[in-house]
Structures
1.
Amino acid sequence: MQGSEPARLYVPGRIYKTRIYMKRASPNMKMKKRRQLISLLVLVLCGTVALRAQSGNEILRPPKGAKVAIVVFEDLECPDCARAAPLVEEASKTYKIPVVRYDFPLPQHLWSFDAAVQARYFGSKSPALGVEFREYIFSHQQEITGANPLDETGQKQRLRAASEKFAQAHKLALPFVVDPQNKFANAVRADRDIGTRIGIQHTPTLYVVNNSRTGRPFIEVVDRSQLFQLIDQMISEAGS
């Protein structure tokens, strides 16, 4: 038939080359795909922000029976957390509002996770004792860290010694293993996961929260000198 290719005779053993022709994408096609990719990234980003906002609205609430509270994500090895702690305690006593503490040990700190576990142990004896231990550790941070910030073994030994001293002062015996079933460690990890879910990136991160269902349920304290002013504001916006 005119215009048709002649039939090829297959010869066994001969190597045949096959040419593959690929159609090049046009500039318009490339631009379209690029726009689709950008749109997908925007949707993912917006979804992440919305999820964090929803999680924040669920988590950043005062405990039952309170209209307003202070929420703090802290790391017991963090120097700025130690500086913020007295102000948080003062605000709590002044306004008679609770403080909700979340452990958020940072990965670069060598003994903060262990300290949080021990704080949970003392808190299991009484919540007030747990808070007092946290304040005690804040006041002994430099002593525990020591001269070599990379000496993990030495730091954990000094943390243990400080914890034993605290326990003795309160007529308690500190067990050799304070968390044999990992109950306290799992609680610390759960706190850290909550912080990660709502986008916590540094410590301390402070919020003033209220029970409002219509207005703003929480506000981050970026400037700690404004803490009392923000508490007044959240009290005025709290629900009945």
Note: The first strand starts at residue 68 and ends at 74.
2.
Amino acid sequence: MAVNESVRAAGIDLAHIVREIAKDEVSAELQRCPGGLTEKERRILDMWPRFEDGELVMPGDKVHYASAHNDETEIEVESITAMDGYFVLCDDECRSNQYEQGQRVKRPAPKVLDADGVEIKVGDTVWYRSLSTGDRMRKATVTGFGEHSLDGPLATLKDEAGGTWHIDPKKITHTRPDSWERLEEDACNSICGYFGKGVSECDDCPANAIAANSDEFECCERAVKLDIVRRAKALAKVEVAE
């Protein structure tokens, strides 16, 4: 039976009670004063799920979620159901967490962002720079977030040689860095393929901005040549704009 249903049968307005206790400034005074709550209200408060810091869990709160079936790491509580010895938090898509009575609820872990503001997730392919790599970016796979520094969590990465590294997220990017090898590969690609497009997929193509004043085919061909020169200058650490 849902908590709201059992309490409604007892003639108690649970939503009002919990909201008053959890969210209002009256909360501290009510809990300090023995006469502030009835026995039924206090039992309701004692059984209500709480976060690890003691705050009451309410519909609309986000809680930690772990599932082998998807990559979601949090759910937004839609309903709270109390059973005999345990309770269940469920969202509007029927994803749920089950807890023993009295077990504290974890909040979602804060998102870890890379140098470009993109969230880093376990399994992501990323590139990183560290003291051991100097200016060179190295490819790796994210395996976790086990270590911490003064600035927050470090991403645990496994590189292509099998080495494990704990790296500051600000030194990580999801964007594949350019290289002479990559430039050579791209130079042998088709005109449309160079920009990651199929034939006649002209919408939002970078070629439009690079060489906008030429005929269509000449524009695309010229755009590829200009971009190859730009990338080569950047790789050679020559100013692109002279």
Note: Residues 1-13 have pLDDT under 50 and may be disordered.
3.
Amino acid sequence: MKNKVIFCDFDGVIIDNSDKLYSIYRDLMKEKRILSKIEYWNLKKIKIPEEEIIKKTFNNENFIQGYMEKRKDMIEDEKFLEFDRLIANSIESIKKLKENNKVILLTKRKNKNNLFTQLRKMKILNIFDEILVSGTVSKKDLILKSSLFAKDQSVIVGDTEEEISVGKNLGIQTIAVLTGLRARKFLENYKPDLIIESINDIRTCLKK
């Protein structure tokens, strides 16, 4: 396992963002009846849309429309980014990977300034060989623009069906982790090359 180029998703792979997402849900629901975090997260794990989750306890179209508009701004607000936590040992695993490989951070975040502020606060800004922020650009196009991309050496690691689809479209090894937004049974439907518990298991399963 040497000289790989590993495109690694951020949310759900390196950080646990479940507290952030639930805190936004709880904040926006205010005095209305809400689901427990376990109930909320179990629905996210099988890709139930946020709108449908809201309807479980309060079904009002005008409220839901307003909720979704506010959520777009809140999800990258520094106040709520404080709820994000590094997944146990994820940074140690990345440092070990970097001994013989390139590790590139890949994220769909739109607010680049807040992302870099978060990375600095977590003291991980400088551990990646490259940071790719897609915003409105697809992850596939972003990877293709990277000077480090090489089809025969590249790997993508993510927690959702999006990274699996990107990997398959690019013809590169695709690894899904179970520390993020999707459950194993859901991910299996998209047939990644591998499903692992967390990024901490990646060193033993990369293609030679």
Note: The CA atoms of residues 22 and 37 lie 6 Å apart.
4.
Amino acid sequence: MSSSLKQFLDLIIYAVFIVFLSAGTVNAFIIESHTLNQDNTYTYSYTIDNSLGEFDIQSWSLDFPIIPDWNQNDFFSIPAGEVMLPNSGWTALPGTPVFGLSAQDFVSLNASFEVEAGQTLGGFSFTSSFAPGGIAFYEFGTDAQSNTGMIVGPIPEPETWQLFAIALGLLFIYKRKCEKPVANST
């Protein structure tokens, strides 16, 4: 599948998912951009657009179908990680995935740094060798409000999934060959 066709299909899936989730409510959006770097890695940048949102965003998370190849702690941590933040009022750390293999969490350290309804905050970013694709995001407010949707983030290449399926198949065949029939003792 060509990369332009894959991007188009990801966009269609994303749009349908957002329309389905946002019917009747107004939520904050996560705006994503990514850049292919000279070393064939991708820098993913995110902005929380809460200009039409109904609650303040205290934390948010990205859910990945991969094990991250970047240090998930933020640049301000000791020791320093590889995740950039808009200011020192936010922290980044590995999260607990809802459906994927891993998650990247972003948490406001106090109420004065939350993304209030009517505001926008950018400057969240990290770099990965994994190519762009559709991932889930989750937003959380201070009073148990939440929002979810789809966005672009790092995912394994299709070849990676194919290699994984082949490895599982070979493992299954190996296991079956190693099983010895149990002799009847009667």
Note: DSSP finds two helices and eight strands in the chain.
